[in-house]
Q: What sequence folds into this?
């Protein structure tokens, strides 16, 4: 009886939260869905509630769509590569006892607390800037021609900025995984004659594989919606227009809300496909 | 071959001296057991021999070759850990093959050795399982298998049976002893269980706070413990250690009488007391006797058929040639 009571009480208590969640998530989604089938261009005062799949067709067939998907994949893939490789190395490094360990760990985690817009601005103006960025000084000091990162290698520059932000996250998760490795296993491997590199390859890396898949999953979900870094640095120019950015341009720059909404729905579907795909991999790894 | 010599080996962690300089000689083919209370430095000593810890001073030689500065892999020793330390993501076969793979042995030889080890350890049916799918005893056997295939100069065991239940422990104890008989390789075995030490060892090394208290065969330690500590540590149930006037009669500070060397007599006897707890094991009965004038209760091992109960009066007579005498420093008197 008591459990039935508490169960119904629990239902009442979580009701407000569920309600807020529904309002928060469902209403925008439904409105997007609704607009995606409409021809809605407020600047031209056009509003036709039902035009079928026209928006979808024109979004999918425009050449910028495929380009943006490729750009998105390149960007997410590049960031994942840097953060995973860097994260594993940092985690192994931070696991070693050293002087001032506590301070170093906090410093490593710090970039995660910097807002995306701020970090993009800092990188743009203090590091990448041709006239007075740190990299330009370094290049001149070495007697080289300063390199304009943001216009010569825009995609790479954005990847570097975002990877810098996400490296702490990967490091943190991987560090806890490294620390959970039974030290006797490493000692056993050492006695079995495995040199340091083999111990990494056969013992540490397999132990980290689960944490690595979790990092990939979480980061991918967040990285698919990178926006501020592109907005602040290149404005989507020079082949840095991701799917998210394309949707933004359609809605706000071309003021075509119907087309943008269709793009948004397509992005949601693609993101879900990626998520399901990743969940499968994680599921396999969590046996 | 597996002669291990320790010379003035010392270990400090920071300022704490865990093992003061000690000498020890382990002969080829010997089964040596390190035994002592928790925290006395048994594991540390074993890890020094394995090379997993660096010595602070002194020298370790294996087969006459200096090994003090050699890395663990180069010492030709294999270790079985208390937690087994199997590689969880590899199958049993891969676990056993790992040391051979690292040594770059060819596949045929690897397969042959795996088959042989699996045969000897009853693991043939489990070769394709992961360690997580095995019982504690099977995991233990995999760990031993991984050690065997390397054909090491000596095996090092660190409390390998402490995670097993009592029945399995007895079984594995026998298996390890049998393995020693067939392989005839040096084995160093760490335990704090004196029964394991007594039953398995050719030679027991009793440690206390990093100091070797006595080295000898199980029966030597049983018959002639060098001091009060060894006397109290070896033997089960523990030796009765008596101080005061009763000891003075024998001209000693402390006398020790093993429970099995006390006879229950109908009347008279050196000690008279009342039975506290009587433990009937069937074959034997252990009486805990409160003797007037002694602080600690005495333990007596009597025949299983002796029927005395709580509160009964009991008369005890020690067997005269089985009394151990110790002086004021706790050392054995001749
Ligand atoms: N890495 C270390 N740093 C500092 N002190 C240590 C370290 N390892 C062990 N010690 C200390 O050395 C002493 C001996 O430890 P050791 O592990 O050898 O004991 P043991 O005899 O194996 O005990 P047990 O039977 O409980 O396993 C202990 O007092 C322990 O606190
Ligand atoms: Mg120990």
A:
């Amino acid at each position: 009886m008591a459990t039935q009571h508490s169960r119904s009480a629990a239902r009442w208590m979580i009701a407000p939260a569920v309600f807020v969640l529904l309002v928060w998530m469902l209403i925008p989604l439904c409105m997007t869905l609704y607009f995606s089938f409409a021809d809605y261009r407020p600047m031209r005062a056009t509003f036709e509630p039902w035009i079928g799949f026209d928006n979808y067709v024109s979004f999918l067939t425009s050449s910028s769509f495929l380009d943006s998907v490729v750009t998105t994949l390149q960007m997410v893939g590049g960031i994942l590569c840097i953060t995973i490789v860097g994260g594993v190395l940092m985690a192994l490094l931070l696991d070693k006892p050293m002087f001032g360990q506590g301070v170093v760990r906090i410093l490593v985690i710090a970039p995660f607390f910097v807002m995306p817009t701020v970090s993009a601005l800092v990188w743009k103006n203090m590091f990448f800037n041709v006239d007075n960025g740190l990299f330009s000084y370094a290049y001149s000091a070495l007697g080289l021609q300063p390199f304009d990162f943001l216009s010569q290698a825009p995609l790479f520059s954005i990847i570097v900025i975002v990877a810098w932000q996400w490296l702490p996250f990967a490091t943190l998760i991987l560090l806890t995984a490294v620390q959970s490795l039974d030290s006797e296993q490493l000692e056993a491997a050492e006695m079995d004659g495995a040199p340091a590199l083999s111990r990494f390859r056969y013992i540490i890396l397999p132990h980290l594989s689960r944490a690595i898949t979790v990092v990939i999953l979480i980061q991918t979900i967040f990285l698919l919606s990178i926006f501020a870094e592109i907005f602040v640095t290149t404005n989507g120019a020079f082949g840095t227009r991701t799917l998210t950015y394309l949707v933004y341009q359609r809605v706000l720059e071309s003021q075509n809300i119907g087309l943008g909404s269709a793009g948004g729905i397509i992005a949601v579907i693609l993101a879900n496909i990626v998520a399901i795909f990743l969940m499968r991999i994680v599921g396999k790894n969590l046996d | 071959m597996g002669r291990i010599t320790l010379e003035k080996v010392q270990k400090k962690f920071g300022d704490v001296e865990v093992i003061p300089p000690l000498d020890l000689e382990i002969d080829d083919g010997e089964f040596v057991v390190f035994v002592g209370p928790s925290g006395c430095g048994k594991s540390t000593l074993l890890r020094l021999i394995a090379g997993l810890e660096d010595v602070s001073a002194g020298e370790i030689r294996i087969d006459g070759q200096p090994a003090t500065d050699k890395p663990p892999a180069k010492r030709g020793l294999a270790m079985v850990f208390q937690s087994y330390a199997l590689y969880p993501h590899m199958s049993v076969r891969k676990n056993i093959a790992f040391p051979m793979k690292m040594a770059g042995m060819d596949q045929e030889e690897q397969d042959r050795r795996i088959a042989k080890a699996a045969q000897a350890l009853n693991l043939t049916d489990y070769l394709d399982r992961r360690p997580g799918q095995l019982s504690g005893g099977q995991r233990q056997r995999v760990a031993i298998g991984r050690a065997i295939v390397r054909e090491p100069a000596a095996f090092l065991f660190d409390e390998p049976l402490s995670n097993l239940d009592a029945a399995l422990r007895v079984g594995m104890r026998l298996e390890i002893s049998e393995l020693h008989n067939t392989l005839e390789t040096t084995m160093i075995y760490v335990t704090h269980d004196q029964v394991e030490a007594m039953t398995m060892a050719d030679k027991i090394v009793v440690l206390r706070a990093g100091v070797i208290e006595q080295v000898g065969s199980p029966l030597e330690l049983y018959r002639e413990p060098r001091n009060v500590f060894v006397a109290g540590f070896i033997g089960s149930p523990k030796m009765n250690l008596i101080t005061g006037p009763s000891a003075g009669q024998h001209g000693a500070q402390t006398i020790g009488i093993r429970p099995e060397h006390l006879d229950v007599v109908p009347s008279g006897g050196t000690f008279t007391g009342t039975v506290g707890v009587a433990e009937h094991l069937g074959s034997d009965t252990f009486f805990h006797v409160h003797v007037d004038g002694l602080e600690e209760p005495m333990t007596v091992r009597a025949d299983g058929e002796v029927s005395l109960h709580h509160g009964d009066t009991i008369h005890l007579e020690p067997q005269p040639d089985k009394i151990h005498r110790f002086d004021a420093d706790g050392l054995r008197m001749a």
